[in-house]
Amino acid sequence: MSVDKSRGHWILATVAYFVLQLGAPLITLPKGWALVSGVLLTTLLLMATLLWLVFAWAHETEKAKWLAPAMLVGGVAAWWAWGWLPALLGWSRENPPTELTLGFYRAVHGYLLMTAAVGLGATLSKLIREKNLLAPVIPFAAMVDMLTVLTPGGFVKQVMEKAPEVAERASLAVMAAPNAPEAVARLTPIAIIGAGDFIFLALYAACLIRFGLRVRATMMGLFLALWIYLGLVLWVLPALGIPPRLPALVPMAIVTLAINWRSFQLSRQETIASVVVTTLALGLIAWLFTRGA
Question: Among 45, 131, 159, 207, which residue's CB has the most CB atoms within a 10 Å radius?
Answer without folding.
Answer: 207
